[in-house]
């Protein structure tokens, strides 16, 4: 029982890193007048959807990373986990701060490929970690379509 509580305590740094990093980036790069003025596709969700969606996804991402770390997976699975996090955190500054919708589209494509690679690599080693990334893959695929439509419309 003691080992389990110590293991769960290890989840805390992952939650702080992923949720905290996402929150800081979200606050620093919050959509403003520039984004409001962009032409958006009809399937653009209302702004209030993004906060809850990303909060849930960041929790799933943190749990998946923690699972791999706890089980001692280092190599490729953890490299892919860190790569997706870096790409994820890079997208908002490119899109909302630098106004580089085109480069953000490249980053979100690379992010989706990294997420799919993570799911593929972890599928046999840690299926729950892979499954935790399925909603993330779906959301990022949608985000890529949205990013591409905004790029095309503007």
Automatic annotation (TrEMBL):
Pfam families: TspO_MBR (PF03073). The chain crosses the membrane at residues 12-36, 48-68, 80-97, 103-123, 130-151. CDD domains: TSPO_MBR. It is found in: Membrane. Keywords: Membrane, Transmembrane, Transmembrane helix. Its main location: membrane. InterPro entries: TspO/MBR-related_sf, TspO_MBR. It is a multi-pass membrane protein. It comes from the Bacteria. Belongs to the TspO/BZRP family. This is Tryptophan-rich sensory protein. It comes from Aquibaculum arenosum. The lineage of its organism: Bacteria, Pseudomonadati, Pseudomonadota, Alphaproteobacteria, Rhodospirillales.
